[in-house]
Amino acid sequence: MIKNNPIKAKLAKHEEVFGILNSVPSAVITEMFAYAGYDFVILDTEHLLLSPETLEHAIRAAESVNLCVFVRVPTACPVAIGRALDAGAQGIVVSRVSSLQEAQIAVAASHYPPLGNRGISGGKNTGFGTLALSEYISKANQEIMLTLMIENLEGINALPEILQLPGVDMILEGALDLSLAIGHGVNFNHPEVQQSILNMAELCLQTKITFCAIPRLPEQLSTWRERGIHAFLAGEDRGLLFKALKNHLLELKRTNP
User: What CATH number did the domain enclosing 33 receive?
Assistant: First the structure.
């Protein structure tokens, strides 16, 4: 059944939240994030071919340990957004938003009337009828969190308009794709890329829309905190797992016989 969104509640009190991008399709890994102390997880369906069953199991795993679960979709596709929410996602992350129109589609697909045009479904989110539909609709419109990723110049140019749109809860940067779009290859630490991200964050702060930063170096976290940012995506599980496994093996090999 639909729950209160702990990320919305914490951010409303200016508390820090840390999330992780889940790209390893395993409910066990998803569950592990909660015990590791993360506040939210983003299940990735943009770059992974997740089956509906795998996605559903991962969402259930997150629910079982009270881990707030978002689903990243490749585009502002109402069908993909609706199915993820019907499966129990507490939020949607839309990749590569490039225009106000795309943002409007995402908002509409994530909310029931009068805020949007999401199609109604009972099932697990209403406790299979335990929660009245009218009460569920009101709660869903209040608790579901919509995050838009800005990853290209078109998105940056449209951001001032997007931030005026009711129903947008958070903006997430995508430095690597932005670097490619600007023409700096994979150099996401290029000054122009970093300045663009800082400008995005400043616009969000001015309009009181949450900005989610991705600190790639320890000193970047301090910089974001000084700017008043409270939401952070702490990387992606594949890279973190690979690094941990590799370092563990190297440490063992260094052990004297």
Answer: 3.20.20.60
